[in-house]
């Protein structure tokens, strides 16, 4: 089934370890299965996440996000040529550093390059999902993504640390109008703490804890299906959020 183009740029942001990469991967997989041409971008230059999605052989990992930013101008053909693919999801383009790569292999990303890249993604894909870094300062892709995304999901961890993190990072966004932009606040119960519900009562979306996800991470199979009964709560939260994010 091919769904109509929504051309949405979606960003996933939140405190360290709050489940950003997990959610970004699951959202992208969900949209591809819904018939959308989908991009998934891993914006963390310190930890290449591509190798954690599917085992070798299932994933084509010969194209690096770094090659895109090695060019001065980011044009559609360059972006298209540097997407990685995974078996079973032909309409999903993956962008990230490859196993063993590190930030200083490539020249620093400029603000203009980041903007051009995000514009091309929006033009070429029905939905583009950005897995942002928690830290904003010095992270050009994250900072640009937060400004340019049509929707930003803010994952709320279960600890006080999560609130403290948010307040400290906002300082880096003050120059831009992002300060008062709308965030989708989503509880992410990464550590199975009921405390989260008490802390954030007015949140419409919740991603429940499930050990099946923990196991997928351990195996490096984040694109695997969640089939166990215990994962139903997470999947319900994911689907509800996915629909809301692309609704007009
Ligand atoms: N709903 C969940 N239930 C159980 N475990 C989860 C859930 N969501 C995420 N996790 C686990 O939490 C850990 C952190 O998840 P993830 O790497 O997605 O977070 P992150 O915000 O991207 O972290 P980082 O800040 O390091 O990039 C992983 O081990 C993952 O298995
Ligand atoms: Mg991550």
Q: How many strand elements?
A: 9
List unreliable stretches of 5+ residues.
none
Shape: globular
CATH architecture: 3-Layer(aba) Sandwich
DSSP helical segment count = 9
The H-level CATH homologous superfamily, spelled out, is P-loop containing nucleotide triphosphate hydrolases
How much helix is in the residues? 25-40%
- The CA-CA distance between the termini, in Å, is 20 Å
Order of helices and strands: EHEEHHEEHEHEHEHEHH
Instruction: Name the strands of the widest sheet in spatial order.
Output: 3-4-5-2-6-1-7-8-9
Please state the CA-atom Rg, rounded to the nearest Å: 17 Å
How many domain units?
Answer: 1
User: Major β-sheet, in short?
Assistant: 9 strands, mixed
Class derived from helix and strand content: alpha/beta
Question: Which band does the percent of strand residues land in?
Answer: 15-25%
Mean pLDDT: 89
Bound small molecules, by name, code or SMILES, are: adenosine-5'-triphosphate, magnesium ion
List keywords for this structure.
248 residues, Rossmann fold, nine-stranded mixed sheet, binds adenosine-5'-triphosphate
Task: Give your account of this protein's structure.
With 248 residues, the protein is of the alpha/beta class. It has helices spanning 20-33, 65-69, 76-81, 111-124, 140-148, 160-170, 195-199, 211-219, 232-246, and strands at 8-14, 38-42, 59-60, 84-86, 89-95, 127-131, 151-156, 183-188, 205-207. Strands 3-4-5-2-6-1-7-8-9 form a nine-stranded mixed sheet, with helices on both faces. Helix 7 (195-199) links the parallel strand 8 and strand 9 (205-207). Helix 4 crosses helix 5 (140-148). The two termini are 20 Å apart. The mean pLDDT is 89. Bound molecules: adenosine-5'-triphosphate (ATP) and magnesium ion. Magnesium ion binds next to helix 1.
